[in-house]
């Protein structure tokens, strides 16, 4: 499709084949699919991997519509659906490794991704080397004859380093290494994965695709070369999702364009306000020059969203608690990408467990915020009061 992105949000996955005369693809619930003739059954058998009704685990028309929508948004040859983002990551890596292999993992990856490498992959005899997110051309020195996967997440979780994705992909492809991107922050649209050499783009659709903090969902969109293997591996691992969740994900997509624009506008405003605050050491927002890899953000991304971090000048648990406990609009909670604002703090020592070779060694507490769709002045006021409480607790 050649339509502009704002149009794609509206039309993605809504071909007449799935909608059949209503606006939204209906929720089709099924385990058993019934055939009237042997010929029908045989046709379904032959085409079961090609969006033809066969058996519930292979998906129903609601799932096919969402798969189409994801491919129309991200590009690629096909989309596998998973019950959460973590399942998408685990199953995508598993599809391209075997015992004795070695994988490269960005040091700033989402924490459960690291835990998966250190437990499941390790037990299977697959070794992981963590690389500095800013390594660029240096990745070449870490590649071994048995390296089969390069997994990246840009920007990194919590510390927000943006990476030189085209360089990493180009070098990985010199030796046929599969490049997997956790594209949750880019929401599959602000970073077009296949334009930057990625083979498979994975998302926690739980975040911006769903957009309302009420569904767990994972997606993996693969290019032509990797699609068959990814699809069959996911199928054999029994990965499938409810059609109601698929429906809600498509509902989320319809408003994702306007939501992302609002998250972007408000988060940049809040980030700039924080940057000027005397208690703040620096802000890690990919759209601001103070963020490591900002130049790659400017070159490769089409926009940003509501998630970023800022680092305070000091680490003081009592003062941080005073800040967090009194917030009005920011709730403490995991996940992000919904309409609401969220806040979480990380003390510098917590990065000892989260980073192997690229610990930023912050002096002060890192606070990660998700800027929701509330009025931005209300959010700034909330943070201002919180930083007052922080200062008062420091003085006490
Ligand atoms: C939340 C998140 C995940 C995991 O998604 P779940 O749906 O919560 O399992 C993976 N990667 C990133 C970057 C995330 O933020």
From TrEMBL:
<dbReference type="GO" id="GO:0009086">
    <property type="term" value="P:methionine biosynthetic process"/>
</dbReference>
<protein>
    <recommendedName>
        <fullName>cysteine-S-conjugate beta-lyase</fullName>
        <ecNumber>4.4.1.13</ecNumber>
    </recommendedName>
</protein>
<dbReference type="InterPro" id="IPR054542">
    <property type="entry name" value="Cys_met_metab_PP"/>
</dbReference>
<dbReference type="InterPro" id="IPR000277">
    <property type="entry name" value="Cys/Met-Metab_PyrdxlP-dep_enz"/>
</dbReference>
<dbReference type="InterPro" id="IPR015424">
    <property type="entry name" value="PyrdxlP-dep_Trfase"/>
</dbReference>
<keyword id="KW-0486">Methionine biosynthesis</keyword>
<dbReference type="GO" id="GO:0047804">
    <property type="term" value="F:cysteine-S-conjugate beta-lyase activity"/>
</dbReference>
<dbReference type="InterPro" id="IPR015421">
    <property type="entry name" value="PyrdxlP-dep_Trfase_major"/>
</dbReference>
<feature type="modified residue" description="N6-(pyridoxal phosphate)lysine">
    <location>
        <position position="207"/>
    </location>
</feature>
<dbReference type="GO" id="GO:0030170">
    <property type="term" value="F:pyridoxal phosphate binding"/>
</dbReference>
<dbReference type="GO" id="GO:0019450">
    <property type="term" value="P:L-cysteine catabolic process to pyruvate"/>
</dbReference>
<dbReference type="InterPro" id="IPR015422">
    <property type="entry name" value="PyrdxlP-dep_Trfase_small"/>
</dbReference>
<keyword id="KW-0663">Pyridoxal phosphate</keyword>
<keyword id="KW-0456">Lyase</keyword>
<keyword id="KW-0963">Cytoplasm</keyword>
<keyword id="KW-0028">Amino-acid biosynthesis</keyword>
<dbReference type="InterPro" id="IPR006233">
    <property type="entry name" value="Cys_b_lyase_bac"/>
</dbReference>
<comment type="pathway">
    <text>Amino-acid biosynthesis; L-methionine biosynthesis via de novo pathway; L-homocysteine from L-cystathionine: step 1/1.</text>
</comment>
<dbReference type="GO" id="GO:0019346">
    <property type="term" value="P:transsulfuration"/>
</dbReference>
<dbReference type="GO" id="GO:0005737">
    <property type="term" value="C:cytoplasm"/>
</dbReference>
<comment type="similarity">
    <text>Belongs to the trans-sulfuration enzymes family.</text>
</comment>
<dbReference type="Pfam" id="PF01053">
    <property type="entry name" value="Cys_Met_Meta_PP"/>
</dbReference>
